[in-house]
């Protein structure tokens, strides 16, 4: 999976980018405010003026310029004025530049705020030779703080804020990840303890990331497992019930054979026992086939299957049985229809439907096998008899394993054939339905998707 297409990846990335941006903006602002309002060392303006005078008298204009550069490095723009003229260049913005002559001519020391966050000082100082100078200093703070101290405070504030914000955002992200993981873990533990109804229960939630998809997949898996286990339990109960009668009959027949007075009488009981054993064998085989299909494991690879050929072959195999019951088979399979699937499974499904139609069809009538395209994507295979049909209340239960309708009370069978048909059709992505025909009889229709090659 490409991580760039992961919503969880983008959530983490955007979260950390947001944290860094907030640290950069808010941290710088807070550090500046901390420097301005939390430092208690005030600037000594007279001492600053004396330092400027000493630098000028000692080194002249180059000495004063070096002192100006040092003060500028510490956040103070300052220089000496003599007779209203600066002894070294000084950067002043418009209004201060315009009002400076009046401030210098006031004849006394000044400390003012021309605008918020800006301090302007005018401080008179006398030289050793009796000359008068005036210090003009501009600072963003009324406190003295060395450059390395400023950098240390700024770094400390930004580091502390970064740890706080990254920790908060990391906690939020970890919480958003840990909650669904904990819910998945709890549901898994409940399932492991035997509670097959356990679900994460996030369907319909606002989450759309990979964890929500995983929770949905878990719920779908849990539903599938619960359905399979419930089906297996039901089939096992039905099988145990169905096996009870033939086993009881077999035990009774063998008891009668043991008490027979002659070999001829015993041979009759043994023939009955063989019939019961054959019935048990068929029952076991059908149950194994149904369980295999319910597990979704056909056991063979899919291939292109010609449904028309399968239908004609099934009719050919059932000809003798149909003749014995005086039933005619009418095959209408002219449409070309190929599906993708397993030929043996589809053959078994058709045989089961056709066998039922022949078994319950009225002698002297016909069984129709029809193959028609529904549209460019699907095909329908219909087997219709002219027998007694099925009561409407029983139609929905025809495909349940071991269900035998009221019309099948006197017919031989196990009640598994149509259950196998339904599962074969579902494995192939189709559907099956049964309906009573208007003029009598039952029609069973298998609808299957056409193979890709057959759509053209």
The residue fraction in helices comes out at 40-55%
Helix-strand makeup class: alpha+beta
Number-wise, the strands total: 12
Biggest β-sheet: count, sense, barrel?
5 strands, antiparallel
Regarding CATH, which class of the largest domain? Alpha Beta
Report the portion of residues in β strands: 15-25%
The average pLDDT is: 78
Distance between the termini: 34 Å
Across the major sheet, the strand order is 2-1-5-4-3
Structurally, the number of domains stands at 4
Order of helices and strands: HHEEHEEEHHHEHHEEHEEHEE
GO molecular function: kinase activity
Subcellular location: Membrane
Transmembrane segments: 12-31, 153-174
Catalytic activity: ATP + protein L-histidine = ADP + protein N-phospho-L-histidine
What does this structure look like?
- This protein is an alpha+beta fold.
- The chain is built from 10 helices and 12 strands.
- Helix 1 (7-38) runs antiparallel to helix 4, helix 4 packs parallel to helix 5 (210-258) and helix 9 packs antiparallel against helix 10.
- The two termini are 34 Å apart.
- The chain has a 5-stranded antiparallel sheet with strand order 2-1-5-4-3. It has a 5-stranded mixed sheet with strand order 7-9-10-12-11. A two-stranded antiparallel ribbon has the order 6-8.
- 54% of the residues lie in helices and 16% in strands.
- It is a multi-pass membrane protein.
- It catalyses: ATP + protein L-histidine = ADP + protein N-phospho-L-histidine.
- Its EC number is 2.7.13.3.
- Keywords: Kinase, Membrane, Phosphoprotein, Transferase, Transmembrane, Transmembrane helix, Two-component regulatory system.
